């Protein structure tokens, strides 16, 4: 539920988000050896949105086949349907939203795809006090599962939330397992992580501190996995399975992801919104891996909700 507020410190949130984006891009450029393009943009006050942002994208890199880390800060006069489906009382409200969102699709099938976003959302109903909420999280989508990687990623998520209460990690992990689920396939997108939305109960100062802790934990959660897996040899079989599983990623983002719907419904920049799409994906009719293969193990051992931390 949203909470009544005065206007939060949007300036401080914006400054931290831009710094976070800069740090993540610098670290991934160092890991990849290539440069991210930089595309700054502004929205003139003649459409659905006004605001600005910075798109950072890399394609055909040595490590990252396609990935981006985007900052946006927009304001609009009317919340789109995707933002009010669970909050009908906010229909028609003006809004302000700012955040950083990233997706990295590595080239090597043994390195998992990763997603992270952190955001602040404010709504300004015509006949009620303003409301705000924090949202975000990070999740991991491996193509070949490694228990060590899953434990590390989830432990990093738990540790980021620990200063704000022991109940947050189990709650946000369960939320992630439920959200990143392809209902039409009856399977998870990956091994999850943490996901949260509508977080107001901590207040602005503690809520912002929690958001910073999650965002700042990303590089430590992901880069050690990258370094363990990036040099593993692979061939056409592994690339073919990677493309098949990337098809599931596309399906989730286009069918179920609220962020994609919000961006498109609110008149956002299409190329930046669809930055999360992989460069190559594939589909097959009525296919499943042979039992006992590493591809089958992904389904039996990894694509299901699990306690990844407790031995």
From TrEMBL:
UniProt region (Important for dimerization), positions on chain: 249-284
UniProt pathway annotation: Porphyrin-containing compound metabolism; protoporphyrin-IX biosynthesis; protoporphyrinogen-IX from coproporphyrinogen-III (O2 route): step 1/1
Keyword set, alphabetical order: Cytoplasm, Heme biosynthesis, Metal-binding, Oxidoreductase, Porphyrin biosynthesis
Cofactor(s) named in the record: a divalent metal cation
Gene3D superfamilies named in the record: Coproporphyrinogen III oxidase, aerobic
UniProt superkingdom: Bacteria
Enzyme class: oxidoreductase
UniProt cross-references to PROSITE patterns, sorted A to Z: COPROGEN_OXIDASE
Positions with a binding annotation for a divalent metal cation: 105, 115, 154, 184
Annotated binding of substrate, by residue: 101, 117-119, 267-269
Site (Important for dimerization): residue numbering on this chain: 184
Function in brief: Involved in the heme biosynthesis. Catalyzes the aerobic oxidative decarboxylation of propionate groups of rings A and B of coproporphyrinogen-III to yield the vinyl groups in protoporphyrinogen-IX.
Assembly and oligomerization: Homodimer.
Protein name listed in UniProt: Oxygen-dependent coproporphyrinogen-III oxidase
Species this protein is from: Scleromatobacter humisilvae
């Amino acid at each position: 539920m949203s909470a009544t507020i005065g206007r939060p410190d949007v300036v401080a949130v914006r400054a931290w988000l831009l710094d976070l984006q800069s740090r993540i891009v610098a670290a991934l450029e160092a890991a990849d050896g290539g440069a991210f393009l930089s595309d700054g943009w502004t929205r003139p006050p003649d459409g659905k949105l006004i605001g600005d942002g910075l798109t950072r994208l890399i394609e055909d890199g040595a490590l990252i086949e396609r990935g981006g880390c985007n900052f946006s800060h927009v304001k609009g006069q009317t919340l789109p349907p995707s933002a009010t489906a669970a909050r009908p009382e906010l229909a028609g409200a003006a809004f302000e939203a700012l955040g950083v969102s990233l997706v990295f699709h590595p080239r090597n099938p043994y390195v998992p795809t990763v997603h992270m976003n952190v955001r602040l959302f404010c709504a300004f109903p015509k006949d009620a006090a303003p409301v705000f909420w924090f949202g975000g999280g990070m999740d991991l989508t491996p193509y070949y599962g490694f228990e060590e990687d899953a434990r590390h990623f989830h432990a990093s998520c738990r540790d980021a939330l620990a200063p704000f209460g022991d109940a947050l990690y189990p709650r946000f992990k369960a939320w992630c397992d439920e959200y990143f689920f392809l209902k039409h396939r009856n399977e998870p997108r990956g091994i999850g992580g943490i996901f949260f939305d509508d977080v107001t109960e901590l207040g602005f100062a503690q809520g912002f501190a929690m958001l910073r802790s999650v965002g700042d934990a990303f590089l430590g959660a992901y880069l050690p996995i990258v370094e363990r897996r990036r040099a593993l040899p692979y061939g056409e079989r592994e690339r073919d399975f990677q493309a098949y599983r990337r098809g599931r990623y596309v399906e989730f983002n286009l069918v179920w992801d609220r962020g994609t719907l919000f961006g498109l419904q609110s008149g956002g920049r299409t190329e930046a919104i669809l930055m999360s799409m992989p460069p190559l994906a594939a589909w097959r009719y009525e296919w499943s891996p042979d039992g006992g293969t590493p591809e089958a193990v992904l389904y039996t051992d990894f694509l299901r909700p699990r306690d990844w931390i407790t031995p």
